[in-house]
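Lecture 7 notes: from sequence to structure.

We start with a single chain of 482 residues. Read the sequence below before looking at the structure.
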Amino acid sequence: MPSSRSPMEERAEARRGPPMAGVLPPPPLLLLLLLLSVCSCAAAAASGAPVGEDYVRPPAAPARLCGVHRKALLSIFPWSEKKKASSSDSDPQQVHISLAGEKHMRITFVTDDNTVPSVVDYGTETGTYTSTSEGESTSYNYLMYSSGKIHHVVIGPLNDNTVYFYRCGGHGPEFQFKTPPAQFPLSLAVVGDLGQTSWTASTLDHIKQCEHDMLLLPGDLSYADYMQHLWDSFGTLVEPLASTRPWMVTEGNHEKESILFFKSGFQSYNARWKMPYEESGSTSNLYYSFEVAGVHAIMLGSYTDYDESSDQYAWLKADLAKVDRKRTPWLIVLLHAPWYNSNWAHQGEGDTMMAAMEPLLYAAHVDIVIAGHVHAYERAERVFDRGLNPCGAVHITIGDGGNREGLARRYRNPKPAWSVFREASFGHGELKVVNATHAHWTWHRNDDEEPVRTDDVWINSLAGSECIKGSSHEYRKILMSP
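Now the structure, written as tokens:
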């Protein structure tokens, strides 16, 4: 017998993850959020919106109340869930790591006890710490919320492809991570628009099953959306993975959290997820670059100025001009709002950024551009200036990590000539950079308990190709101009 639920109800997902300490929003906001939840599920039941031709329905989700999983309602009222048990306020929480320049790693952790020092002890044998590094700390207030003490400690120099054991704050549990290799092969996990739902948990479980050296996330992390305790629960949710491999992220629209005339944007994101922007010559945590094992990766900011008179544009131009394709034959860019998108969702939102910056990427022969924002998956052929171009970048949209807003189900038809594969399902990607010339990209749909490889392609690097000597050579003048 056909299900009485609409497709929207079947795919609506809830926030997931143990709530951490935090101050609750005022009661009127709680009631409004509850009302919106009920109204949105009623609207979903009435909509019956058509799905795209390439849509594959994901497996049925857990039981819901009016299309909204029980956990979603409980996350609005955090006092209805038990706080995570902690042996001590001085124990590290929400531990995650990121690259911090050549052969260095940044360890970030939070403590409720403000007297805990910002130190990390580490070594290559469990329980034996031969080195200690001291870092910095910060905290912030957001309306009625006060964060814990957020520690950032840079450790190193570190050996490549080596397991290190470490302890945060001078005591507490031991963690471990593995440094990336010095050269190929390199395996990168890629996920966007993650959130905190049961689909998020499936995505993280599937990423854990794949052997990866690093995770790349092109924006929209916690979906806290002003409710700061959800930043804490997100940190706890991702800690098992983010404490073992570097997570390199850039911001999305859900990180902004600005309040007109009262709060500037990205306060929580900048405090919690510090990236190596200073090491790359950037003046903003919202855009930066890094190098790892033959790959030069650039993380751009879709929600800060990017026109030709902006600091980000000037920085990008200078960063691309310095890239040495003999040392890093692969050039990859990540940003949040996609430039090539055949989904009805967020159509055209990346156009102005593309108009300003795509000529720079084309001039530098960027190999791959990865975006999020659209809650579906799509892979394009090499494109430039809205048309097929063998010297352009391969564009991939992967905003399907598991966020609470559900999937973007409707695609524009007919499919554009540049669009190769598109599907509205939750999942993650893997990029295996095999050598200086070949990389293997795969996208894995979340299907019940298993990640199912649904799209894969071999990509050739443009380094050393005829593109550098051919028609795109004229664009190099853009990078060299004052």
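Confidence is low (pLDDT under 50) at residues 1-86. Keep this in mind for problem set 3.
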